[in-house]
Amino acid sequence: MNANEQPTAVLDTQSIAACCTTVYSHPLASWLLGESLHPGGLALTDRLADFAGIGIDSCVLDAGCGHGSSSVHLAARRGCEVKGITLESAGVEAARKRAEVQGLTSAVSFEQADVQDCVFEEGRYDTVLMECVLSTLDRKSETLERLCRMLPSGGRIALTDVTVHGQLPRDLSGVVAAALCIGDALSHDEYVELICTAGFEVIVTEDVNQVAVEFVERLRTALLMAEAAVGLGKLDVSIESIRQVRELVKVAQSYVADGTLSYGLIVGEKP
Q1: 8 A C-beta contact, residue 249 and residue 220
Q2: Do the bridges between strand 108-112 and strand 127-131 make them parallel or antiparallel, or are there none, so unpaired?
Q3: Strands (DSSP E) along the chain, which ranges?
Q4: For 9-68, what is each residue's pLDDT tens digit?
Q5: CA nearest to 205, candidates 243, 159, 238, 162
Q6: Which among 61, 110, 170, 235 could bridge 95 via Cys, Cβ 3.0 to 4.6 Å?
Q7: Do 185 and 163 form a contact (C-beta atoms < 8 A)?
Q8: Please, which residues bridge with residue 130 across strands?
Q9: List of long-range contacts for 253-256, beta carbons under 8 Å, 24+ apart
């Protein structure tokens, strides 16, 4: 996407997953989302990894790895082996560079792929990490069932994701929902049901609403910094793009405050 294009202009004709890839590829994304590209950042990744029991002997598939921040972080902090996949070609390049800088190319690898279509060697991975990914998939059940078959007995799926309680409000539908990557998000209970139906036993479940609260507040602060950076010529995006995102954040913040939008953490284990 051209840096001066408005990120919402092309979203209504693409899938939710492609929409998120488009948004995350925009120059404004790194200013607003930081390195991890998901709410809660690496602190929530560590919490999720603790619950999933990721350690030095683990072999992790980071499905929807973005720019590789979580993959490299886990390999560095826990000594595990990680394979990251993402839809975004630029994300693969950035992730590989991140691993190279930290001297972790032997422990972490990346490729451009769609978790909905990939076929993995059974038993190769013992943990699947999905951070703000399941909500973007149109074939959720099929993908979860295939991942469950791939994992060995005792293997785990560990995810965090945006949750929607009740019907998505009208002003968060369509292109707006796509831009916020919530167009196909479910309630916390619906995610749990999907995971159980796929063959997992849920061993940890948390509604981490505070993560959503802190995330939208951080976005508000980051938008002020981004606008200042545009004025100083340090960020090549249009002021109109920033104003559009500010309106999206304002709408989202009201629904986070009343609990319509939240964030969840779930770990499931294959019997």
Answers
A1: yes
A2: unpaired
A3: 59-63, 81-86, 108-112, 127-131, 156-164, 201-207, 261-269
A4: 333 334 445 545 555 555 566 656 666 667 889 999 999 999 999 999 999 999 999 999
A5: 159
A6: 110
A7: yes
A8: 159
A9: 253/216, 253/217, 253/220, 255/169, 255/172, 256/209, 256/212, 256/213, 256/216
Could you tell me which residues come within 8 angstroms of residue 199 by beta carbon, excluding any fewer than 6 positions away? 145, 148, 149, 270, 271
List 34's β-bridge partners, or say none: none
What structural domains and CATH numbers belong to the chain? 35-166+183-209+259-269 (3.40.50.150)
Cβ neighbours of 180 (radius 10 Å): 20
Which residue type, as a one-letter code, is found at position 162? V
88 touches 24 (CB < 8 A):
yes
Per residue in 144-197, pLDDT (tens digit) is 999 999 999 999 999 999 999 877 666 665 555 555 566 688 999 999 999 999
Look at strands 108-112 and 201-207 and give their pairing.
Answer: unpaired
What sign results for the dihedral spanned by CA atoms 177, 178, 181, 186? positive
Residues in the chain: 271
Task: Give the CA angle between residues 60, 213, 22 to the nearest 5°.
Answer: 55
What is the C-alpha separation between 171 and 106, in angstroms, rounded? 46
- Say how far apart CA 79 and CA 205 lie, in whole Å: 25
Residue with tokens 């999905």: 130
Query: Is residue 186 within 8 Å of residue 162, measured between CB atoms?
Result: no
